[in-house]
Amino acid sequence: MTEERPGHIPEFRPGHVPEFEDRWLLVAVAGALSFVAMLDMNIVNVALADISRGLHVSDATAQWAVLGYQLPVVALLLPVGRWLDGTGLRAALLTATGGFALCSALAAASPWAAWLIAARVAQGAFGALLFVLMPVLAIRSVRPGLRGRAMSVPATLGPLGAVTGPALGGLLLDQLGWRAVFLVKIPFCVLALAVAWRAMPRDGRPRRPDRRSLADAMLVGTGVAALLLALTLAPGTPSWLLLVIAAVPPLWWWLRGPGGRPVTDALRASGLFAAHGAVLALAAGFAAMHYVVALHLQRDDGISATGTGLTVLAFPLGMGLAGPVGGRLADRYGARPVAVTGAALTAAGLLLLVPLGDDWSPPEVALRLALAGIGMGLNGGPTQALVMGAAPPERAATVGSAVQLARSLGFTLGPALATAAWGLAGAGGDGVRAGLAAAGSESGAGAGPGDGVRAGLALAAAAACLAVPLLALPARRGRAPGPRHEKTTGAASAAR
């Protein structure tokens, strides 16, 4: 057995289980940073009106405080994953966390809108790096037999950050003003920096991106940014859908080129294309449900903002309680059956919302949301462990970035599709405006209850139901980009 340096995190090699100390402190760092990165996806939405007034700009300009972060996060995930597979984790983590905190401070200090948007775009680039780093850090910090528990930490805390963002943002906005929604993340980043500095071993200097990497980033960034803008802005102005056409050429060129082929090879080798589809479907169902329920309770049923917040809180509570349980079950019984069970419970909870009718009571809704939240908690960590455990070791960051891209697109696609379903089912223009208001785009008139609500919830439930067979499908492996590897322990065995 080779001698290992103190604090060294060895790379997992096929057929070999290294002996080293499990570093749960680093897993906690991965979870905390996952929470912060996802929190930033939603917390700024509630402050857009105040930003508009404070910086004396239009609502459309203020909206770029959100889009300026979301666009680089989604657009850079795949190029960042390819780059991380050849560079040191410690330096990358310290750079990403420090840059994220610095950009948060710059955004809070913004004297004008252009400054704010530039800071948010830079923060989104660092956020993309954080999103890809988190699952890789978690899976490399523990033995293979504990991957389910380790992956459940960032997989649970990340969505919890997305859910709690609006509530926390509203509290900060009322008490301290809009600049506080940017400052609140800095203490988490500073603490993560201190822990990572002491606990992570030095594993090499970061590799500088070459021209090929920069070209790949431009192609993927252009295509994914066009797609994201189309999904985000089309509910208010359908002509934005034309951007979907503009997204096709750069993404096609990238997929057919030297930058895209290693990504598709890694996904083919892992045999888990269907699992990525399940991640996207569950994220879309979750996002669609979240905005339809909150909108209907407050605007149509007359429930107060506090009552609505407490009702919707049932989902993250269920998810937070079930997340650690899902990780333990995955380590004991295998990741796939636990992930499928979680997706089925989520689908059941969303399906039970559809027949409630027009008059909802908060306890009825809360019980169904709690069931769906328990399902999401059981599903998150095992699904991450399933995918990451089946990834070729030299392509772990690439596969992790593909999972994060699927989840991010699902979070964006869900509200857009639910808004369209609401409008087509009879809510009309008010329903579309209300959907945009829920997404933070504009303030709109209240949408009428009835078929629109049921259509939006039916769409969310259908997306969650689709995830069940996708996760249950056995992995169909293709040829690996390198030597064929056998997975022998832990969550990786569930991918067979």
From TrEMBL:
GO terms for cellular component: plasma membrane. It comes from the Bacteria. GO terms for biological process: response to antibiotic. This is MFS transporter. Its main location: membrane. The chain crosses the membrane at residues 24-44, 64-84, 91-115, 121-139, 151-172, 178-197, 217-234, 240-257, 269-293, 305-326, 338-357, 455-475. SUPFAM superfamilies: MFS general substrate transporter (SSF103473).
